[in-house]
Write a structure and sequence with these properties.
Elements lengths: L28 H9 L11 H75 L11 E2 L2 E2 L12 H11 L17 E7 L5 E8 L4 H13 L14 E6 L6
């Protein structure tokens, strides 16, 4: 048999040529020099203790100044409110006094008309029903004073005993016994107070005001034992007399 001829195997393909790597970029000489000459980072010095203390004092002073301003604002507001309250109280007092004067005028007018009616009735030989007039010593419209009550000696003392417990006043120590206040009280036939007038001041304005308030709190005054009413009563009060 004839020999079989085998063809030789093909050689492997040649490897690709190596890829050329790009050359690294050379640093700029100027940049390198600047980097070499760059100064190290600056280290901040520690804070100045004196400056810190000065700043603290400044802030404290500002705080105190603001607190003082706030205090002054509050004080001014309080003062304004007090002034408004005083003005309101004054207006109320004036209104009350005006109302009291009006009531006194009305009472006086009622007394005048009652007196006219009484005089007309007397002229006609009679007296109006239900009328009553006070007297001291038998004199119509007379006065009664402490210790001298005219036809009813105990009447003035009875009035003083009623009024004195209503006097609210702190009497100063060593007040002389001679100090006293004297008031005239005009009454309607019903015993209602027509007017209160201070005849003599005690020298203690607060005491005089307290006495007048006590007199008005006793309205109406009681009748005398005979059922009549003193039309004008003069009463004396001494601060040293205990209620």
């Amino acid at each position: 048999a004839e020999p079989v001829v085998v063809a030789p195997a093909a050689p492997p393909p040649a490897p690709p040529p190596p890829r050329a790597e790009p050359e690294p970029e050379k640093p700029n000489a100027d940049i390198v020099v600047r980097q070499e000459k760059k100064a190290p980072p600056k280290v901040e010095p520690p804070p100045d203790a004196k400056k810190i203390e000065a700043e603290k004092r400044r802030l404290d002073a500002e705080k105190r100044a603001e607190e003082e301003k706030q205090k002054q604002r509050l004080a001014a507001e309080e003062k304004r409110r007090e002034a408004e309250k005083r003005q309101l109280d004054l207006e109320k007092k004036k209104q009350a006094e005006a109302a009291e004067r009006k009531r006194d005028d009305e009472r006086r007018e009622a007394v005048r008309k009652a007196e006219e009616a009484r005089m007309l009735a007397q002229a006609a030989g009679g007296s109006p029903a239900g009328s009553a007039t006070g007297s001291a010593g038998g004199r119509p419209g007379g006065t009664a004073a402490a210790g001298a009550g005219g036809g009813d000696p105990g009447y003035a003392g009875q009035l003083v005993a009623l009024i004195r417990p209503r006097i609210v006043f702190a009497v100063p120590e060593n007040t002389p016994a001679s100090v006293h206040a004297e008031f005239q009280v005009d009454l309607l036939p019903t015993g209602e107070i027509l007017a209160v007038r201070k005849l003599k001041a005690s020298g203690l304005p607060g005491y005089d005001e307290a006495v007048e308030r006590a007199i008005r709190r006793t309205d109406p005054f009681p009748r005398r034992r005979d059922g009549t009413v003193e039309r004008t009563v003069i009463i004396r009060f001494r601060p040293v007399d205990a209620p």
